[in-house]
Structure prediction request, 736 residues.
Amino acid sequence: LTKVILVKLRDRSYPLYIRADLLKQAGPLIRKAVPSRKVALVSTSFLFKTYGRSLMKSLQSSGFCADPILVPDGEIHKNEKTLFNILQKTASLRLQRDSGLISLGGGVLCDLAGLAAALYMRGIAYVQCPTTLLAQVDASIGGKTAIDFYGIKNLVGCFYQPKAVLIDPSVLVTLSERHFKTGLAELIKHGIIQDERLFRKIENNTDAILSRDLNLLPGLIARSCEIKAGIVSEDEREVGKRAWLNYGHTLGHALESYYGYRLLTHGEAIAYGMCFAAKLSAHLGVCSPSIAQRQVRLLKQVKLLRKIPRFNLEIVFRKMFLDKKARSGRILFILTRKLGLVTIKKNIPSSTIFSVLTQFQSETRKMP
Amino acid sequence: LTKVILVKLRDRSYPLYIRADLLKQAGPLIRKAVPSRKVALVSTSFLFKTYGRSLMKSLQSSGFCADPILVPDGEIHKNEKTLFNILQKTASLRLQRDSGLISLGGGVLCDLAGLAAALYMRGIAYVQCPTTLLAQVDASIGGKTAIDFYGIKNLVGCFYQPKAVLIDPSVLVTLSERHFKTGLAELIKHGIIQDERLFRKIENNTDAILSRDLNLLPGLIARSCEIKAGIVSEDEREVGKRAWLNYGHTLGHALESYYGYRLLTHGEAIAYGMCFAAKLSAHLGVCSPSIAQRQVRLLKQVKLLRKIPRFNLEIVFRKMFLDKKARSGRILFILTRKLGLVTIKKNIPSSTIFSVLTQFQSETRKMP
Prediction:
């Protein structure tokens, strides 16, 4: 049966549907989300060939006039050029205010298509079909859309909620090992910030999860989505507890940027970030050392931590202050109290952060 | 004294301040609107020289670190290139999430800067200082931001509310006659759709208004803003009565586009559009012929209607259907019931629209 989770945001509320093979029966769900019968499907040529064609068939049987808009894949194309290419195609396909834009792809593609849907005629109905684990548990919820600009990730974007999200875990089988694990990092993060049971379930099933057991994945994805949806419902525009979701992201983003978004996947970078946040939490006495160790152990167990070339401490430290979360030169840090509970700290002395970062760097040098 | 009108939009409510010479004392009002002391001022070099410097002084005395971002003027620059130039400068000035963007300019500049503020870091505080009558009574209220794209006006944009709008009618003295009258057309429109008294006040004071009498203008602007603010408060995203504000805009936009946005100002185009809407209203029996005549008379009196080259009826007719307001091939028309009261009609037969348009074209050929 299809699991349905509602992201509650008053007049912008929307459902997440989760089920294996959902894309083949997407038409009727998308009919509920789009006012007219005219849609465009934004995807990459690989995903369109692999999953898009059966999605198109389902759309057509539901009475839709659907056209594909194919864009290149990868973070390097998450820019204004691709954005305006999509917008040009929506215009030439004569999409109107009551038409819909559907995305079939990973986080990059969902961020791009979401921004295009937000901006075309000041916003048309948007439906997301995320095809990576990361996009399914993270990018699909909360309405963040963006492109990279001026060398800064997600510098340009807006909040725009989709009308529906269709999550089909069976598409995860074509995902590479590294891409799968980058989503697993966010899944683990959701456990750390809000649900010890979810964390333990991952600890106890690492092998089955890594082999993409479809008996296990839908439930884990649904629980993870529920956690994120609950937080986003309470704080759509990230003024309060939505910042919890940035656990591990302050150092994570700095490392991603430091290594030019190539050496580390997002998940690997935030795995490092979570290790660092855990160590900082223990150092400041916000949690016990064993709570920090348990996080590091699980991240090692799923092989999200691997040895990385020595980084320049000063540069990475400065990059943390360039983060969007920094306000007037102060960093917000999310720390663990215990598994399932985090807290926001605003005034950690720079010297403390720097010294824990120094120690952290020397420890990571000993990793496998 | 400063008039204050509140645009009520729950957590996105904001004040309009109206007063002659307000820009010289803007600092303290902008302090209330922007979380930190860092702002950038988007303007044109002419406006920056004429009004921006005293505004900067006032900002600096209020403790702001303020930098100018100068952009070229004119509809032709209301595109993605100028938008991304502004975004690049906000990035290089290192504006953060709690910084502010201020616009000092007409509608084009406010639309551009508003979109940049909406998109930079997914939205920073935005303050508008509109310098044309059109921007003061129209663009400053309601949060519409946009650029032109694919040859279509305002095709790409979003809804983003400013934190405050500072309206200084004394800047209107440097406005050209044609630019002033384009705002007057919207003022008259606000009278037609919601306030017969305002309409009459304009009828009885056309000469004083055209000579920009500063005893008269602040009151008229304030009333006009109040009307638009009231409508927008009830219908932020234009699903219902906000469409009233499009009175005269269906044919108006079609004519603007037909003449390449050069021959007619926006005000002249919607003046024609309002004449047409009035005639269509009378033709359909929605209002009496005298109500339609009174609108045409006032628009002639302020010389907003002048003879235009014959247009191709078929092309203009088709352009009306390309309007953003058209949904699945049907045009929404706003018609006058009486002065101060309009109504939305969805199902006017194309043949009726075409025959009234044919008649309208032959009448306009007889204009002075």
Summary: Chain A has a mean pLDDT of 93. Chain A touches chain B at residues 36, 38, 80, 84, 87-88, 91-92, 96-98, 118-123, 144, 146, 149-150, 152, 154-160, 237, 324-328 (CB under 8 Å). Residues 335 and 343 of chain A are 5 Å apart (CA to CA). Chain A has 14 helices and eleven strands.
